[in-house]
Write a structure and sequence with these properties.
The protein is mainly beta. The protein is built from three helices and eight strands. The protein folds into two domains: 22-160, no CATH class; 177-243, no CATH class.
Length: 243
Amino acid sequence: MPTPSITPSLLEPGLWRSDPSLERYQVKGGGIVVVRLRPGDTITIQDPQGRQNGEVIVFDKNGRPAPGALSNHSVQKPTGLGSILSDRDINTRSLTEQLSASGITLDDALAIPLFSSDSSPGEEVEFTTSDDLTCLVCAPGQSMTVDEQNPPTPLVMWVRRSDLMGETDPVLPDPLAEPRLDFRIERRTAREYVVRAGEFIQIIDVAGRECSDFLAFTESKLDQGIERCLDPTTTRTLMGAAY
């Protein structure tokens, strides 16, 4: 009896998500997500497990607080966001640098409160934007002690874009730091570049499911005519299933 093949394969390789206008973000418990919004975009925020407070903080293109561009909901000081930013166990440096680069300060920020300690699982709230905005969504909460049963839980946010503006690629995350080199490697091509000692390399799979190899060589050895790869096993080609 022939042995059935169990090799994984993709029935429709190379496809992007079925609805390019819909984006999904998970706001981790005790975490923050930042997205850019355009006029007419709709955001839906869900509390999957219930009883998780949340906050939405928005700024206009000039860096000013603009909660009215989302709704006429009541606002308050962003105490939840403040608790996350002041937690020494959480590294928020990249967030504050990103906001500062956009001319945003949190001194006068106002938050739209979401959900409550009694909210039901699956409860949702929806907003439609009326301006270009920078939107912060956070799920505040303290680290749970061993005698408690109240850990912060994630929120889920969907962004429905009103206009794709000709976009064919997903929105890419911001670089981890100010890049010295920033380039795209087109499909079915390769590129070489020099990395200095102490530098980090950030590689983004733009649309997913892209097989790629990353090979690194010591420059001093290459100058001697010795081609010795430092890490020949760092590859996604063997999987072909990176999502």
